[in-house]
Amino acid sequence: MVTAIVFIKADVARIPEVAEQVAAIEGVSEVYSVTGGLDLIAMIRVPRHDDLATVIPDHVNRVPGVLSTETHIAFRAYSTHDLEAAFSLGQEDGV
């Protein structure tokens, strides 16, 4: 599995819709809105390095409202905690 972290600058007026469209792309596991010089960070997880060439330039970069991207490829994972479980702590059922 190849993991890439993609920093995305987006049209500010379209950030929520850009995030939703990027999240819907096959190979994108998560999209986060963030503070600072970026607008979104997308986590890409694909079986092969060559698949990044399809996901990022052919799909992510073509989402209307994406102004620019910067891609970082992960070498190793030092933490494999379950983010979904961590974010669900303290939430009541049905909320």
TrEMBL record:
The protein's matches in Gene3D superfamilies, at most eight in alphabetical order, are given as: 3.30.70.920
- Residue ranges of every copy of the Transcription regulator AsnC/Lrp ligand binding domain listed in the record: 7-76
Q: Which Pfam families match?
A: AsnC_trans_reg
Report which superkingdom the organism of origin falls in: Bacteria
Segments forming a coiled coil: none
Protein's UniProt name: Lrp/AsnC family transcriptional regulator
Organism (species): Kribbella antibiotica
**Source taxonomy:** Bacteria, Bacillati, Actinomycetota, Actinomycetes, Propionibacteriales
